[in-house]
Amino acid sequence: MSNELFSLESLLLFCMSKRSSSRQSLRTRNHKSSSTTANQRQEKQQLLQPIFEKACDAIAVTDDLGCLIEINAASCQLFGLSRKALVGKLLTDFTNADFNFERVRFSVQNGSQQTGELNLLRPDGIRREVEYTLTLNVVPHRHLVILRDITDRKEAAQDELWCQRQWVELFSEVTLKIRQSLQLKEILRATVTEVQRILQADRVLIYQVFPDGTGKAISEAVLPEYPHILDLEFPEEVFPEEYQQLYAQGRVRAIADVHNPDAGLADCLIEFIDQFDIKAKLIVPILQNLNSHQQNESKSQNQLWGLLIAHHCDRPRRWGNFELELMQQLADQISIALAQAQLLENLEEIVEVRTAELKDVNRNLQQEINDRMHAEEALRRSEEQLRLIANALPVLIAYVDKQQRYRFNNQAYEDWLGQSLTEIHGCHLQDVWGEDCYQRMHSHVEAALSGYVVTYENEIALKNGISRSVNITYIPHVDEQNTVKGFFSLVSDISDRKAIERMKDEFISVVSHELRTPLTSLHSALKILVTGRLGTLSTDGQQMLEIADENTERLVRLVNNVLDLQRIESGNFKMEKQACNAADLMIQATEAMQPMAQQHGVTLVTQPVDIQIWADSDYIVQALTNLLSNAIKFSSPSRTVWLTIEFVQQSEVLFSLRDEGQGIPQSKLESIFERFQQVDSSDSRKKGGTGLGLAICRKIIEQHEGRIWAESTLGEGSTFCFTLPALHS
């Protein structure tokens, strides 16, 4: 146990000893073997008692309810009550309603401390701000509370803050008055008047130093009972050159008592300033920053222009830091005013020369203003027209900022959702569409705010509660610095189209089911005829029979593909995902397609790797055979098709199938995964494809939470890639 914890427990032991002394003496008599320990404990109590009683901080011991069990003398002084009046009272009886002892106790873990503040309400009506430290369970169900009166400290901090606020306000006021005029005399007069008022000084003056070393007070504010210094000229010896150099380097002098030897003033200077009843003075230099033409242009030097001086005449005065800072800040403002005045003087000389030119400029400017007004009017009319057009369109048009809040909505939002445009403006997407709908759109919104154009479909609920299918497009708004500021949202109702598609899919499904049985029988019959088992046909008849068999097989393949795609899209199927060896699936697919490859004179090269994936093996083999079939059909004889697999990251594997075919144009790399889409419409006739194989592949891969895409260079071949989740052991 650490010394700190030991002392703390000893202190509590001492605090409780007064109420348990009889029980302890009984235990001491009954257990003589522990007399040594009891004596040591008593010595510690005797040692800690004066510390407890004479501690500056109020120390109290409470029970679980905050009832005061033991207190020290400082606690009595803090509460303004005797020990007898305090013991047995609840701590919350003397605090404001915001302090709840039990709530504070429950928020602190056993054996730990918590520090906070509370308002102490004494019986005599005095309120004190107190900082408390609560230590729980120093002994079971007994808690230590140390209270420190911080009222004076807080009041001092508030007073200091008030002084600083007053200083800022006064400085701002003086600075404003200085900047309200470009006339130097008015600026200097306003400065001395306001400084004299703020500092409550008896005299404030601005003393200008001339190049020959002499000086003169040029502005002054002084109380009526003291003599004026304004317009008095001072000889050179009063302000020697070494003083000028010191002040030019930024010297500030704050003299609380001019007669104090520590002030370092010469007797002749004291004699001189006594005639103006000066007892204390504060001197701040006013500097001009001049470019040195003899030196490098990047360098500059400070030249002493004059002094800002405050006098106290009735008695010595110690100048505060804020007064020094105020004088220095105002001296800087005067320096700026000097530069502005000099600039104004130069500008006045230029004005006459530029007057004639300005007339032409004014004419041109007026013409430019007129042109701009016409342009703004045209822009306003254009914006009104655009809004009218946007409001007339039967689609949702909106602009969403970086924080996913609406900044523009057309009238369709009010018509569809039943909320006014004012209610929608500034609202977050989730607040407008609800939690479920927002979860479906969240990933697409993030993609748009990352700079990608996004198009997807979603289901939304209108004001009448009817669910509608919509097509949504997000177009990022990118500024000149290539930063995404938000995105434009276009939402169109595709419910009718979806209904037609469902009708079409149902029709295709019905027709395909009705066609499959007769086509299968017809295909089987033609196969038997082709074998010659039912008789030999003429050469022409045999050729016609082979054509019929080939086209029947194509129809069977088309019907099967349509049914597969319809089943996948409708969701009426269940994938049996399990751990699979990717190498086995690759070998199974290549063996199935080997006869077709030999028929086309194409070589299949497989590089299987033993990688465990989580997938439905039958569907993955179907996807691989579809891809291999395409690669074989679109490869010339004597060409090679490669099928490989690799890890792309720890949780994902990449299948790649590369051929040496004619290639695919960049504009077709996305559309080829749609239904009945091929690179060339003549391909289906030449190669016998249905245009559904890649669509089926995409649906299978997406159901496995993977991605599929194509990469190609015309004349050099294509590569089809897809990813699947890896299975970790």
Overall pLDDT score: 80
Rg calc: 47 Å
The helix/strand class is alpha+beta
The low-confidence parts are 1-12, 16-33, 292-300
Q: How is the biggest beta sheet arranged?
A: 6 strands, antiparallel
Cα distance spanning the termini: 47 Å
| Tally of DSSP β-strands | 23
Q: Any idea what the shape is?
A: elongated
Q: How are the strands ordered across the major sheet?
A: 8-7-6-11-10-9
Q: How helical, in percent, are the residues?
A: 40-55%
Strand content: 15-25%
Task: Give the number of helices.
Answer: 20
Molecular structure report:
By secondary structure, the protein is α+β, with helices and mostly antiparallel strands. It is built from 20 helices and 23 strands. It has a six-stranded antiparallel sheet. Strands 2-1-5-4-3 form a five-stranded antiparallel sheet. Strands 13-12-16-15-14 form a five-stranded antiparallel sheet, with helices on both faces. The two termini are 47 Å apart. The model is unreliable at 1-12, 16-33 and 292-300 (pLDDT under 50).
